[in-house]
């Protein structure tokens, strides 16, 4: 599998051409790996790029301009071979464009570029979505990096903490309703103590915890000593946290989403999907997120 490496004085990262997937992030001084390995025991993913849909459509189908299309969970970008656009010692850009296979699932002509840049102790993940149509293009896009939790020691994430740089003592989150397999409208409360919430057994047994309405700007993981070791910086409207349900998987995924899975009130029409993004005719949408290694 074709892989590209970038590095600076502090970090070294590896990215696969397949899916433009970040597959390694190492602190050079200690040799510590911050990402999950992709072992099929728990989950074969590491950091898939979600495009042009985040999550699932009901019955994996949606409608656009009166026609019904089928698309699997999280879209097709993660299963496409990206081409190299540019590469320097500390920065990499990869791209895909529409083809007959994508057009049969998603009726838009597009170019998607994924960039990775190392600056100091941070990895910046950058996306450019180019609309090649003379009409508005609807899409969602998101990240899904699986971060080791805890970073070192006994692989028991229930001894670690999920933290937020937020003054609130309580945050609100949504979950998938098992009865409908859609995002429910019940709001759950996430209580913080000194900005942290200990990861508990069963915390992820009902899929991802989804914090919407731009609640999350900075989130982090901390070890049993409550000392943060990795931070996520995001401007996304939705940030989700996930680990495989009913397992002791030693990682937690931080998922900045510009989109969200179908809600209970979703009609199935693409442009009416909550948090759906738009690229203007022949325009470019840009977004991303940053991982800070501490």
From TrEMBL:
The family database entries (Pfam families) matched by this protein are listed as: Aldose_epim
Where is the chain membrane-spanning? Answer: none
Tell me a Gene Ontology molecular-function term this record carries: isomerase activity
InterPro entries on file? Aldose_1/G6P_1-epimerase, Gal_mutarotase_sf_dom, GH-type_carb-bd, LacX
Segment forming the signal sequence: none
Specify the superkingdom.
Bacteria
What biological process terms from GO does the record include? carbohydrate metabolic process
Which PANTHER family does the annotation name? Answer: APOSPORY-ASSOCIATED PROTEIN C-RELATED, GLUCOSE-6-PHOSPHATE 1-EPIMERASE
Q: What is this protein called?
A: Aldose 1-epimerase family protein
């Amino acid at each position: 599998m074709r892989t590209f490496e970038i590095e600076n004085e502090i970090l070294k990262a590896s990215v696969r051409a397949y899916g433009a997937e970040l597959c390694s992030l190492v602190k050079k001084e200690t040799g510590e790996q911050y990402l999950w390995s992709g072992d099929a025991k728990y989950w074969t993913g590491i950091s898939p790029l979600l495009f042009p849909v985040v999550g699932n459509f009901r019955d994996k189908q949606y409608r656009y301009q009166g026609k019904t299309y089928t698309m699997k969970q999280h879209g097709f970008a993660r299963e496409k071979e990206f081409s190299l656009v540019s590469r320097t010692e500390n920065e990499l850009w990869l791209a895909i464009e529409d083809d007959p296979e994508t057009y049969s699932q998603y009726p838009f002509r597009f170019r998607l570029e994924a960039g990775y840049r190392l600056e100091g102790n941070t990895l910046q993940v950058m996306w450019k979505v180019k609309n090649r149509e003379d009409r508005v293009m609807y899409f969602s896009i998101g990240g899904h990096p699986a971060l080791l939790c805890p970073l070192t020691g006994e692989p028991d994430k229930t001894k670690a903490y999920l933290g937020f740089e937020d003054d609130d003592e309580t945050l609100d989150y949504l979950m998938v309703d098992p009865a409908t397999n859609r995002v429910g409208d019940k709001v759950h409360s996430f209580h913080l103590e000194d900005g942290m919430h200990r990861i508990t057994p069963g915390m992820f047994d009902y899929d991802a915890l989804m914090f919407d309405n731009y609640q999350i700007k900075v989130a982090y993981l901390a070890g049993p000593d409550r000392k943060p070791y990795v931070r996520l910086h995001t401007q996304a409207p939705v940030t989700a946290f996930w680990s495989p349900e009913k397992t002791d998987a030693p990682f937690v995924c931080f998922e900045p989403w510009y989109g969200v899975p179908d809600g209970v009130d979703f009609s199935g029409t693409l442009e009416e999907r909550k948090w759906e993004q738009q690229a203007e005719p022949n325009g470019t949408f840009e977004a991303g997120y940053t991982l800070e290694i501490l």
